[in-house]
């Protein structure tokens, strides 16, 4: 393919945008939301005219042929743009300002494609004559393409009145129960759902614990509830375990067959039948698994977008955050993790669904007398705590001594942060042989 061809552009659309502003000055407020930069115009003289319009708009002055011509004269651009006669042509180019946003979208689209061509040309040159390792070249390519994608995001604002209207509408929907997903995706654990009101759309939820406490098992339990009991599709990114291992764990939890017997191949006829029945149930469950052990946010985001469009997934679960490949290996580890947590938050906002990311905590909790994890224990980056809307931490009291008969099967879910709700603790029972979490039973006295 020749790179000497004229880059994508649409002169008529650019002229119509500028002509629309001359006919209706209010149009510029809508156009600014779409065309964020004068460089979106391909032709230099159109860039200069638009810059002049923005300068006039800054002082709240009307934009007409006379004032625009005077501003261009002050900037010494009047001859560059073709003189007064060209401004008159722009007026005629847009008989009405009603289609201004449509024309502006065309200009924006052409600009983004030109930027993509420019970046890909640079990437091609770097690839043919590399001065950096392949993984760093991939990171550079990803960052530059993502920068273009971010330029394509249209900014928008809303009045407080509009926000209040939406808030009252959501409250009415929650009260009537007509729109269940507005109250969050339920985990299936009664006390936890009462505390966090389910996993909320647009939110990043961090599930953190020390190794071997049960992060993956807990995640698979609420995933199983969501896909089986609620029938909602979920995208599960497993960077630690293969899909066959995850399938076995789901079968064990669903069938309540002893996992040790399954691994040893010592299943009786009743066990086999329960496994088959569980398989039939899980076969109908909408779970999408990606178990590629080497993944970055570009791949995760692309898959999530595709699954949202094709299957309308309601949640993304990632096991676990610190195993996601960084965008740049040159950055300090703390900055790498900070970039990943920010991208996860953006993903939740973009797709309007909860993103649950499992995370490791450091050893500091093991040195405390009570061994309970805290927010400050999140490994490698304080930005995880900052970006997260909810942080849940798992703690197994029986792992650190005490009355093991009473505590070994108890898991505490510590809601250490909840941006829009209370913090607190919930106890769950962990049935180890079934890899299954259950609601903690109440005693006769009303306590746990």
UniProtKB/TrEMBL annotation:
Residues 364-382 have a biased composition (Basic and acidic residues). InterPro entries: AAA+_ATPase, DNA_heli_DnaB-like_N_sf, DNA_helicase_DnaB, DNA_helicase_DnaB-like_C, DNA_helicase_DnaB-like_N, DNA_helicase_N/primase_C, P-loop_NTPase. It is an enzyme of class 5 (isomerase). Keywords: ATP-binding, DNA replication, DNA-binding, Helicase, Hydrolase, Isomerase, Nucleotide-binding, Primosome. Pfam families: DnaB, DnaB_C. Residues 178-444 form the SF4 helicase domain. One of its GO terms (biological process) is DNA replication, synthesis of primer. Residues 363-382 are annotated as: Disordered. One of its GO terms (molecular function) is ATP binding. Belongs to the helicase family. DnaB subfamily. The main replicative DNA helicase, it participates in initiation and elongation during chromosome replication. Travels ahead of the DNA replisome, separating dsDNA into templates for DNA synthesis. A processive ATP-dependent 5'-3' DNA helicase it has DNA-dependent ATPase activity. This is Replicative DNA helicase.
């Amino acid at each position: 393919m020749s790179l000497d061809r004229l880059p994508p552009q649409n002169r008529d659309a650019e002229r119509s945008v500028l002509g629309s502003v001359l006919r209706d000055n209010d149009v510029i407020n809508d156009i600014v939301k779409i065309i964020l930069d004068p460089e979106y115009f391909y032709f230099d003289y159109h860039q200069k005219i638009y810059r002049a319009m923005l300068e006039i708009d800054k002082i709240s002055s009307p934009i007409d042929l006379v004032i625009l011509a005077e501003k261009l004269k002050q900037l010494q651009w009047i001859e560059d743009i073709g003189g007064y006669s060209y401004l008159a042509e722009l007026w005629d180019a847009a008989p009405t300002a009603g289609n201004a946003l449509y024309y502006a979208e065309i200009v924006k689209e052409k600009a983004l494609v030109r930027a993509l061509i420019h970046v890909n040309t640079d990437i091609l040159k770097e690839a043919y004559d590399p001065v950096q390792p392949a993984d760093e070249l991939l990171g550079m390519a990803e960052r530059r393409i993502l920068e273009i994608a971010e330029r394509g995001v249209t900014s928008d604002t809303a009045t407080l009145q509009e926000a209040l209207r939406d808030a009252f509408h959501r409250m009415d929907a929650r009260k009537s129960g007509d729109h269940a997903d507005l109250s969050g995706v339920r985990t299936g654990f009664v006390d936890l759902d009462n505390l966090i009101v389910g996993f909320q759309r647009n939110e990043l939820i961090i599930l953190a614990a020390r190794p071997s406490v049960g992060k993956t098992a807990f995640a698979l339990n609420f995933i199983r509830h969501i896909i089986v009991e609620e029938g909602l599709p979920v995208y599960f990114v497993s960077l630690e375990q293969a899909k066959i291992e995850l399938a076995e764990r789901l079968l064990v939890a669903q069938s309540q067959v002893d996992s040790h017997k399954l691994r040893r191949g010592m299943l009786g006829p009743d066990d086999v039948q329960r496994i088959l029945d569980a398989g039939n149930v899980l076969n109908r469950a909408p779970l999408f698994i990606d178990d590629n052990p080497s993944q970055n946010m570009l791949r995760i985001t692309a898959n999530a977008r595709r699954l949202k469009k094709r299957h309308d997934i309601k949640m993304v679960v990632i096991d676990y955050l610190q195993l996601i490949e960084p965008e740049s290996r040159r950055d300090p580890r703390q900055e790498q993790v900070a970039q990943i947590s920010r991208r996860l938050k953006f993903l939740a906002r973009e797709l309007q669904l909860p993103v649950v990311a499992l995370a490791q905590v450091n050893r500091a909790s093991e040195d405390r007398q009570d061994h309970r994890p805290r927010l400050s224990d999140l490994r490698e980056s304080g930005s995880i705590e900052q970006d997260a809307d909810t942080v849940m931490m798992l703690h197994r009291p029986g792992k650190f001594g005490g009355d093991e008969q009473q505590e070994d099967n108890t898991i505490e879910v510590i809601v250490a942060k909840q941006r829009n709700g209370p913090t607190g603790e919930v106890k769950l029972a962990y049935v180890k042989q079934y890899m299954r979490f259950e609601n903690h039973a109440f005693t006769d006295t009303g306590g746990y």
